[in-house]
Amino acid sequence: MPVTIQDVAREAGVSVSTVSRAFTVPEMVRDETRHHVLATAERLGYRPNRAARGLITGKTGNLGVIVPDLSNPFFPNVLKGVQARAREADYAVFLADCDENATEEIALVQAMAKQVDGVILCSSRMSEAQLERVVGTTSLVLINRQVRNQPAVLMDTAGGMRQAAEHLAALGHRRVAYLSGPRASWSNRERRRGLRRAARQDIEVVELGPFAPRFEGGSHAADLALAEGVTAIIAYNDLMALGVMSRLADRGVSVPKEMSVVGFDDIPMAGMATPPLTTVSMQNERAGRAAVDLLVSLLNVTGAEAGDLRRGLECQLIVRASTAVPRDPTGR
Amino acid sequence: MPVTIQDVAREAGVSVSTVSRAFTVPEMVRDETRHHVLATAERLGYRPNRAARGLITGKTGNLGVIVPDLSNPFFPNVLKGVQARAREADYAVFLADCDENATEEIALVQAMAKQVDGVILCSSRMSEAQLERVVGTTSLVLINRQVRNQPAVLMDTAGGMRQAAEHLAALGHRRVAYLSGPRASWSNRERRRGLRRAARQDIEVVELGPFAPRFEGGSHAADLALAEGVTAIIAYNDLMALGVMSRLADRGVSVPKEMSVVGFDDIPMAGMATPPLTTVSMQNERAGRAAVDLLVSLLNVTGAEAGDLRRGLECQLIVRASTAVPRDPTGR
DNA sequence: TGAAACTCTGCAATCCTTTGCAGAGCGCGT
DNA sequence: ACGCGCTCTGCAAAGGATTGCAGAGTTTCA
Q: Is the pLDDT assigned to residue B332 strictly greater than 60?
């Protein structure tokens, strides 16, 4: 029932080759004929079958994106960027959620491989070795993961942490707690690294955790941080920061008067919390777009000269109301 | 470079037909041969090319899902359900975000049509007429949208509203505000309907709005509700409810002592607010799974007898700490 | 022993496009 | 009038898989 190139050819009174060329190499067919063909196609509602085209060109016009967990508020926004940019570049996108599971992730890459021109891996859960192995299955672009000279878009989370540390230092904080996220996570390592480096000079960092990178993890961590006598807390992510604030409120500790709190991610909720949370914003949607750009340019390159394989994205501290000058800079 | 069915055939010393059958109609090839073929395929890392298969079978093994806005926390969860169930049924899923734009949505359906066996439309932004028109382009399943006898999975939001109303009535509230969402939205109409019906007996509902279905819309609405002298507020969704609570806190109105607040959606943030928000939970992930089930069964049906084209999903009131007995049941 | 009845495998057509190659038609110079 | 060079179009193969049909081989039974 769907209309094929043959239908158009017959209706327009030309051969299929001509119809095909009218679409793919317009300058090769006479203006008059081309207009006629295109008009007929339009009238019949013809749209080339991408699968059939892919069979012969070797390009599918699709790309895949794999995320660890859709219900993590971090990912939908990068997905949105991927989606938007892909559509602009006339690619369709396959989505898969690997449920935080590396094995599943590998399976998904392999399942997708034949149907896509390339895959974007968001915060891959694979080990270094596993990643090395799937490289070559298809073109790969990583987001927030660094391995060998794989193409990647990396958020400068270390820089974000530096901004957070400088902000607290400028306010007069001297002893702050870092609430660590999952040990194995690349993001967590980067954040710790950025913080430690920035802190060296004038801030003492006491590191706690790891905690679950969720609201409950934050509630849990809050008490520990309180016992450490710090004046400020930097959480691995906003969810934890929110948990911290909630627990502090329960214990009657006022934020930011008695304790400053900084999050990371700038999830939509951050600005709506009481008090609105100071946090580091990461341009997720931009990251998604950048990944697509990178992938597409990779696909259009002849092979040899690859150009720049890395894209960096700045993070930005958003100062809201959860941070302030400490009452007693040395802790209570 | 990718390994094709021919490679397997050559390597296994059989014809391509046999290899094909070993995969698609195993009982048709002798056990011994089949094992040999399958083993060879495994060894070579062969995976059938779905596009090529689709060309001849007419089935692609893909389905599409279109959402209005990925950054709306409602959708990622249904997406997660779609994704998970699709994978179980061995379908890959195309994702698209139409940016709240009906025209774009239509274009996306058409662009997908050739590449998928069916499309799931989440809370479609199309008008009735537009929807009628795209029906037939491909198999369609709607989520939270009702039109003619199109297959759909519908959340019983009206029922959820009833629960909320009963809850407030039981606490002793007699006059409550409903903060309306977008007028054109099917969900909003359903929620109003459910509330009005449930309220008839013992609650007076004053309807305000429409407001933007976001945090800011809630802040805006809070003052108006306060002026109406109600003892409880039901918001179109959680985002608004959170905005209401934030604004009430600013104005020194204590929740739930002086004002009860009920949300809708049960977004992750709801339970983390202060106080934790009483809200209606909608099984988004289940909805996603149900939509896939419906679509798949639709595809496997011969054509004539279609069976049950509707799936209903119950909503459930989650009572947390933002609702309580009113100080003065008649308002202040 | 021979024929019938199966079971299994291979041939070749088919799905929808793209594309190399060759041919048709035309204009132009000689 | 002829041939050359263009431009444009058509033929047919190719791409990876499925499937109807027919043939090869084996078993069963008379």
A: no
* C-alpha count within 13 angstroms, C-beta hemisphere, residue A258: 11
Tokens 């959402």 belong to: B67
Q: Are residues B74 and B214 in the same domain?
A: no
Asked whether residue B320 is domain-assigned, the answer is no
- Cα–Cα distance, A272 to B215 (Å, whole number): 7
Residue B19 has a CB neighbour count (10 Å cut-off) of 28
CATH of the domain at A76: 3.40.50.2300
Compute the average pLDDT of residues B228-234: 96
**Spacing of A59 CA from C20 C1' in Å:** 19
Confidence (pLDDT) at A186: 87
A58 CB neighbours in chain B (<8 A) are none
Answer yes or no: do A256 and A290 share one domain: no
Look at residue B12 and tell me whether its pLDDT is greater than 50. Answer: yes
CATH number, domain containing residue A44: 1.10.260.40
- A228 and A247 share one domain: yes
How much is the mean pLDDT over chain A?
Answer: 91
For strand C, give the nucleotides within 7 A of a protein CB: 7-12, 14-20
Q: What is the mean pLDDT of chain B?
A: 91
Q: What amino acid is encoded at A290 in this protein?
A: A
B142 is in which domain, residue-wise? 62-153+284-312
DSSP labels, B203-219: -EEEEE----SSHHHHH
B113 and B20 within one domain:
no
Judge contact between A50 and A23, C-beta under 8 A.
no
CB B143 within 8 A of CB B198: no
Regarding whether A270 and A299 lie in a shared domain, the answer is no
Predicted confidence at residue B303, as pLDDT, reads 58
Instruction: Give the pLDDT of residue A304.
Output: 58
The answer to whether residues A175 and A278 belong to one domain is yes
Which value, to the nearest 10 degrees, does the dihedral of the CA atoms of residues A222, A228, A229, A231 take?
-60
For residue B69, which phi and psi values (nearest 5 degrees)?
A: -165, 110
Query: Does B208 lie at the interface with A, CB-CB under 8 angstroms?
Result: no
Q: How many domains does chain A have?
A: 3
The answer to whether residue B326 is domain-embedded is no
Q: What are phi and psi of B36, to 5 degrees?
A: -60, -50
